[in-house]
Amino acid sequence: MIRREERSTAVRRTAAVIMVGALTLVVAGAAGQFLGWFKSTVPVTVVAPRAGLVMNPDAKVKLRGVEVGRVRSITAKDGHAVLDLAIAGDKLHDIPGNVRADIKSNTIFGAKAVTLVVPDDGASGVLKAGATIGADHVTVELNTVYQRLVDVLAQLQPDKLNAAIGAISTAFDDNGDAIGRGIDSLSKVLGKTNPHLDELTSLLRETATTMNLYAGAMPNMMRTVDNAVFLGNTLLDNRTNLDALLVSATGMANTGQSIIGPQKAKIIAMLNDSNPSMALLGYNAPGIACFIRTAAVGLEMGAPIFGLNDGLLKLNAGLLPGKDQYEYPEDLPWVRGAAPPTCENGLSNPRTKTKANFLVIDNAPRPYQPRTQPKLNTTKVFQLLFGAPPRG
């Protein structure tokens, strides 16, 4: 009996130890599962200008609100904060390779987390193990603001601050009505200006365009100013010669006045009389210019014909039937044609084959009729044979 009782006690103790060990393993396994001891992670580095005062290790790493890892450690290097992240291996393939990092917190006093942000131009590639991500934005926490405010207040001198506040108080003292009237006047001015904001905005745009034009022309303007300065210095250096020139010009003007002054009435009359001739010359200027150009070309073409090269005059002569005798007053011309002078249709180029237009006008009582049959003029024949008969 004693042996059975001892054996039963030993079995119970052994069972108790095994149960406690099993419970310990279960609790440790649950804790390890919760803490991620059994998860496969991949290292990724985030480099930020700073991490903030409430960024701690084991902070969450999220992508689109889903936790994909934890912050393993935070170190400082070359004035930047370096965050070593532990990204879950099974979620690494879901993270784009061009993500950026934001370090921010959900509340004012809450702990910070690393938020991975996909660029606006879309995801590209897949994040690799050991990659380095840049942080674009780090939220400023309230205690950092307090710290900076304390630093600013520590630099202020209370007596000078008090004096400045007292001066401001003295300036506003008994001036409330004037300040109120100024604000009221400003409100009225703004009220009148508000309906014209569109015109004012357009004017400002045009002013900006004008300023850009002036900015583009500014180098040339500055060169002009430099040249003007150089010109002024040149005139200053030659002021003696300039004085002599002005004196000479004054003497010449006096001499011209003594010569032209007595004849100014005749000169004015001559200019007035030449107005019609000048007007006619101006009207026929295109034709005159055309004639001069054509004459120059014709002279070049006709020089060989008139013996420039060999001293011989080359003619192509022939006989044409004569016209009827001039009869007065039937053959008097009529001046009824009017056409502006022109140089068109190849008139200025004798070498052209273009045919100029013929202007038909009523310039005689009998239109010209070319003779189609030969006619013997006995009077001229006898004159050629026996000479002209004596007159009276």
From TrEMBL:
Domain Mce/MlaD per the UniProt entry, residue ranges: 41-117
Classification via Pfam families: Mce4_CUP1 (PF11887), MlaD (PF02470)
Organism superkingdom: Bacteria
Entry's Gene Ontology cellular component terms: extracellular region
GO biological process, one term: biological process involved in interaction with host
Limits of the Mammalian cell entry C-terminal domain: 126-336
NCBIfam families: Mtu_fam_mce
Protein name (database record): Virulence factor
